[in-house]
Automatic annotation (TrEMBL):
<dbReference type="InterPro" id="IPR029057">
    <property type="entry name" value="PRTase-like"/>
</dbReference>
<dbReference type="Pfam" id="PF00156">
    <property type="entry name" value="Pribosyltran"/>
</dbReference>
<protein>
    <recommendedName>
        <fullName>Phosphoribosyltransferase domain-containing protein</fullName>
    </recommendedName>
</protein>
<feature type="domain" description="Phosphoribosyltransferase">
    <location>
        <begin position="9"/>
        <end position="197"/>
    </location>
</feature>
<dbReference type="InterPro" id="IPR000836">
    <property type="entry name" value="PRTase_dom"/>
</dbReference>
Length: 223
């Protein structure tokens, strides 16, 4: 029987338990993928005593099936394209280019929204960077997040997830240095099936979580 989480906070605490070897180290940072990954990442950062930041990514959805990712983009012009899926779904280059343009605009909007001039972004250079999301389906978001992060020269990149398909580690491949997942079912249809409460995380929720994390002298448990 695979683990089912009450909500994202519960998932974050379960994930933090798998990352205890990184607790109370000054060379560890936690980065949540907005929006749903941020409340999970907050719990991880609190438990580990690590600073929290966001790494903005946008999924490039197939035009007629937007939840199916044919790629993803991230801060710093990182791009991942699943060319095999594009061929299988018959997405043309002009169709792809339109989705890419739309998502680049959304990425820029999110970056501006989550960038508070009063809150310095976390420096990952030479540090262990733990990328957290609320789950993984295709792997596109995690792959592009890792590629964007690699350009910032961390010592190590860890992909950390509450739930992902049993073969997800292979999909991520060598884009990350370590892969941690709480539960990895063989029967996987969507991330939401493993949460009792998978209600939407809003932009305001993300901003509030980031403000809460940065206002503390050091991350403390949210209980």
């Amino acid at each position: 029987m695979h683990r089912r989480f009450a909500d994202r906070a519960d998932a974050g605490r379960a994930l933090a338990d798998q990352l205890k070897h990184y607790a109370q180290r000054d060379d560890v940072v936690v980065l949540g993928l907005p929006r749903g990954g941020v409340p999970v990442a907050y719990e991880v950062a609190c438990a580990l005593g690590a600073p929290l930041d966001v790494l903005v990514v946008r999924k490039l959805g197939v035009p007629w099936q937007c939840e199916l990712a044919m790629g993803a983009i991230a801060s710093g012009d990182a791009l991942y394209v699943d060319e095999e899926l594009m061929r299988e779904t018959g997405v043309s280059q002009p169709e792809f280019d339109r989705v890419l343009a739309d998502e680049k605009a959304q990425l820029a909007r999110r970056e501006a929204l989550f960038c508070d001039p009063r809150r310095a972004s976390v420096d990952v250079t030479g540090r262990v960077a733990i990328i957290v999301d609320d789950g993984l389906a295709t792997g596109a978001s995690m792959k592009v997040a890792a590629r964007a992060l690699r350009a910032r020269a961390p010592a190590k990149i860890v992909a950390a997830l509450p739930v992902a398909p049993h073969d997800a580690a292979g999909r991520i491949g060598d884009d990350v240095d370590e892969y941690v997942c709480v539960t990895a079912p063989e029967l996987f249809f969507s991330v939401s099936q493993f949460y009792s409460d998978f209600s939407e995380t809003t932009d305001d929720d993300v901003r509030a979580i980031l403000a809460r994390a940065s206002s503390a002298s050091g991350p403390a448990s949210s209980g």
